[in-house]
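Example S7 (structure tokens).
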């Protein structure tokens, strides 16, 4: 996927309504998780990324700062995130509990 043509999200778009359900891609554009929850708004936003599992079953929720993700819209307006982290690196993070 060529992310160079995708539009970065603004700080105002970093909220639950926009980010919830967005896929997160790691190296080689491998899908490594899905944003399932948002804490905060704008510059002080963290997201919960569900990593692993199948269709949300058996996944591990981990807390990641939006500063660790490049959040953008593709040509069709679909929101997604890109990170240099691997799925295994995210799985090593502590499990997030609400």
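Recovered sequence:
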């Amino acid at each position: 996927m060529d992310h160079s043509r995708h539009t970065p999200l603004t700080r105002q778009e970093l909220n639950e309504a926009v980010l919830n359900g967005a896929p997160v891609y790691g190296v080689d554009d491998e899908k490594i998780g899905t944003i399932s929850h948002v804490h905060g708004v704008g510059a002080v936003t963290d997201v919960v990324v569900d990593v692993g599992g199948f269709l949300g079953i058996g996944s591990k929720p981990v807390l990641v700062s939006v500063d660790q993700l490049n959040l953008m819209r593709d040509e069709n307006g679909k929101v997604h995130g890109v990170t240099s982290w691997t799925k295994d690196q995210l799985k090593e993070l502590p499990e997030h509990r609400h």
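Notes on this example. The helical segments are 16-19, 87-91.
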